[in-house]
TrEMBL record:
It comes from Neotabrizicola shimadae. Keywords: Membrane, Transmembrane, Transmembrane helix. Pfam families: ABA4-like. The keyword Lyase does not apply. This is DUF4281 domain-containing protein. The keyword Membrane applies. The chain crosses the membrane at residues 6-26, 38-57, 77-97, 109-131. It comes from the Bacteria.
Length: 147
């Protein structure tokens, strides 16, 4: 299968996972299983296969920015990097949905977090942490022996 076909397949799988998260109140267990396990594992398998097959012949590396740019100049390695993003962002998105549900965050507040995580992964994670911190109760200091 060509890198372009694998790219399209990976994108379609990731979009299916994100759609499942958006509609997760309808089938929470199935949505979280699909988006939090099945699709990320499939993308991780694609990533690992591409790295094993093409890493040794790739130019560049992780030492400098030009090395990273050279590394991703090879289509198969760029696809591996893309699969990495798709897998980890979707995994984090599933964590966002699961955490929001367990902490009683309404789904309408979770949807913007999912969109942000889908488009800009770490920014969505940051926004989720800010929302969680803003909803956490402040610690109350009470003298010992008082309820």
């Amino acid at each position: 299968m060509s890198p372009e076909a694998l790219f399209s397949l990976a994108n379609s799988a990731a979009l299916l996972g994100w759609a499942a998260l958006c509609f997760s109140p309808l089938a929470p267990y199935s949505a979280l299983l699909l988006a939090g396990r099945v699709i990320p594992l499939a993308l991780a398998t694609l990533y690992t296969g591409l790295v094993l097959a093409f890493w040794s012949g790739a130019e560049g590396g992780f030492s400098t920015l030009p090395d990273v740019m050279a590394l991703f100049g090879q289509p198969e390695i760029a696809l591996a990097g893309w699969a990495h993003y798709l897998a980890f962002d979707l995994f984090v998105g599933a964590w966002v949905a699961r955490t929001a549900r367990s902490e009683g965050v309404p789904h309408y507040l979770t949807l913007p977090l999912l969109l942000l995580t889908f488009l800009f992964g770490p920014a969505g994670f940051l926004a989720t942490q800010i929302l969680r911190a803003s909803r956490a109760p402040f610690p109350v200091l009470q003298p010992k022996g008082q309820p």
